[in-house]
Amino acid sequence: MRRFGWLFAAGLCHAPGCSSTCVDDGAVFNQSLEACMTAGITASATEGSATDASESDSDGPTMTAPTEGSATEGSATEGSNSNSESNSNSNSNSNSNSNSNSESETITGGDGGLWCEDKDGDGFGDPANCVPSEPGEDPPAGFVPNDDDCDDGDEHTFPGAAPNDDPEACMTDADGDDWGDNTPTDPDAVPGTDCDDDDASTFPGSAEVEDPTKCMKDEDGDGWGDSSVDDGVDGGSDCYDSNADINPGDRVLYTAADNGDFLEVDIATGDLNVFASVDIGPLDPPYAVITCAISPIDATIFCSQSAKQILVVVDYCSGDTPIELADHGRSICGLGFLDDGTLYGVDSDADELVTFDPGTGEVIDAKPLTLDGNGVNIQACGMAVDCIGERMLVTDGQNSRILSIDPATGEGTVVADIEEGQWNSVGLEFDPVSKQAFSNNGDRLFQIMLDGSNNYMQLPDLAQSINDLSFGPTCN
User: What is the pTM assigned to this prediction?
Assistant: First the structure.
């Protein structure tokens, strides 16, 4: 309703008899609209002629308050207002230069018409705060010739803000990714399809390789969606979304050999093929790698060198000599990183979950592994992290089952029990694509469901017995 009030006022100010008052008092937007209306009505009611009023030789307007009769019976009501009501556009004469425009003509701005305040500076005006302007006059500072903004308190909300959703709709795009917020705070803004408008790496089709339509987060821009996301965002299968070199489309399932070789595990055939090696020549023997894990922070690979009870840092893509860390004095059968970069291991002698300092390789914490409050006898193990369910997984080889371990307490929960007898040489890795686990007992390889169903499938036997399974970069 406020817009129509302004339009009615604008029509009265441009009515015959008001021109002299509006011009002599300065630019229209600096005048008192009420005074302009009063003067216009009085002049028309008293003199009866718009032309006579606009051509007056007086130094200024005579501000005479209108009487009830003049407001009702004068020409302001019956004459100049009739033009607005009939949706016409007429000029009284060339000297008066006053127009009476319909609503559809004045709200669009242009040469004259309404100018609306643009408080947030996005180029679109507030329809609730507009002023009339005479043709040829400069508009007020901070005003624009349109009233299209649906939220003039937010510079990120305006028509066309989210062109990938709609190039014309008034939407909110706070993160500048050209997709509109699906839950805008202003009820007048049109909802878009961006499921996280505070993150420019999250929008529909962000992870185009994995799914071109889902609203995923792809921080590293490799086309695969982050596996660990907030509610409302579609989860992907990239466990390392801060590193574009590691994703489900560029990974290899491998095992590390004691001679420095890294062998790709072909789950379809059981073949083991060397794809990378590190130079262990400068290291003092013996060298025996039991398990490896890759950091989600910087993709550094840590392995347990069981022959010396130390951790080593390896870069098999460069082939450099592994870096030996401090002697931790533990019998580590499994390693795994949580998403925050904390490195854990399983001590099969002490039956404990230990926490490492990745910088030094030293153990900084240890907790007993338990199940239903009772200790777990870990004789052989594998370790992995379910980055989808955010679970730490440990294969209990003694009982051929997979446990989910609470890192804060060491308490375990059985997530898979495959009843295959005692396992002696065990590896474990989580597959974020299938959301299942690969585990081995020597040269026997299994794909295992982790939903409590205890379903599993035995894959072709491996070419030889191995100690570990891990995903890593292909080095391509």
Answer: 0.70
